[in-house]
Amino acid sequence: MSATRGWSTELEGLRGIASLWVLVGHISLLVHCHITLISSPGIGVDLFILLSGYLMAKNYVERQQKEPWRSAETIKTFWIRRFFRIAPLYYLLLIIALIYGPWFGEMRDTIAHFYSGTATESSRYTDQSLANILTHFSFLFGLLPEYGFNTVLPDWSIGLEMQFYLLFPFIMLVTLRFGYAASLIGIMALCCAGRYVLADYYEAFEMPSMILIKLNMFLSGMLLAEAIRRKSLLYVAYALLGPVASVAMGLGAIKLQVIMEVLMIVGMAAILWQYPQGSMRAQLIALPRKLLNNRLSTWLGDVSFSVYLLHLLIVIPLIALLLNHTDLELKSDLMRFMIVCVFAIPVTYALASLLYKYVEKPGIQIGKRVLKPKLADQTS
Question: Do 21 and 235 contact (CB within 8 A), yes or no?
């Protein structure tokens, strides 16, 4: 989720699509309007996961001359970079979610009153216990079923991301010892085995916030990065083992999600592949690349993390207030969805732009200042 431009700019557009997908997906679910694909925000999260695995591997490989993988300083530098990319915005919105949790719980109950099929345990929004606070500030909540899905934020995936960051340098060290493809495919197999050896633990999570449940998709992104680097269709085939692992872990029932995982991997490969200039394939992919590279797509990518983390703080109370004070419930499913989108999308993106400018970017700069002495020592 780096905000830098040191990578394929098409990925900015893909990040923007992923965050918008999650936003409108949650709106459709909360107003009880089923729209194929749109009403599956988990697929948008899978796209984020693929992008994260791709970017981590690509950047780590490209920096290995200056930042050797076996160096403890490299690992610390990696962790510091990632922490300051994620934590400042997360902590700010987490504090809001915890303080106003009871109010968000009331808003969520209001929505469930009108549409019982959308009901959830709103009590999880109101948990202001020390244990819930500490596990969330330490990012340990993703490993604990009781706390893995226990605020109004969609932060189960943030805990998942931080677990991946923790493991990633060690995964790269394993690839040095056993080979890139063999290591990542082997780790996928271990995740699948864990699904059955530790069945109760896997099944205890309401959302897949524990790393072993979703590590296969991060690894697919890493294999895809190597496929692009090597220009290897074989590695694209290896990346497709991620969705196979999803099926093996019992996610095959979610057929649409697994199919979309395959299509996202193939689509990313097609967009990122380097084609001979002037070839038919280059001409065919030119339009999708142009759409993902324009100024709007770049902006959507810039604010994507803020949009993702913020949107439920806007969408849930907005829907509840509209249901209480307007005739929204009398509208058709599609009309309800469109009305909420008209209000929610501009507000969410306006606030996300402010958060990106005044929280995310300063957070990244703080991380750079923390690293500056370390980087100076490495280059001296």
Answer: no
Given a contact cutoff of 8 angstroms between Cβ atoms, the answer to whether 156 and 149 are in contact is yes
pLDDT averages per 10-residue partition of the chain, 380 residues? 51 92 96 91 93 94 91 94 95 97 95 90 89 96 94 94 96 96 97 93 93 96 95 96 91 74 93 84 84 89 96 97 94 95 97 97 93 58
**Inter-residue contact 64 to 24 (CB < 8 Å):** no
Surface-to-core class of residue 27, CB atoms within 10 Å of its CB (0-12 exposed, 13-18 middle, 19+ buried): buried
The token pair that represents 312 in the structure block: 């439920």
Residue with tokens 């959308």: 118
Q: Are 15 and 1 in contact (CB under 8 A)?
A: yes
Per the listing, tokens 């998709």 go with 217
pLDDT given for residue 292 in this prediction: 86
Do 175 and 235 form a contact (C-beta atoms < 8 A)?
A: no
Please tell me the pTM assigned to this model. Answer: 0.91
DSSP states along 220-255? HHHHHHHHHHHT-HHHHHHHTHHHHHHIIIIITT-H
**Rg of the chain taking only CA atoms, in angstroms:** 21
Residue 127's CB: how many other CB atoms inside 10 A? 18
Q: Which tokens hold the place of 262?
A: 């395959």
User: Residue 58 in contact with residue 22, Cβ under 8 Å?
Assistant: no
Cα–Cα distance measured from residue 223 to residue 184, given in angstroms and rounded to the nearest whole number: 8
Amino acid at 42: G
Confirm if 69 and 77 have CB atoms less than 8 A apart.
no
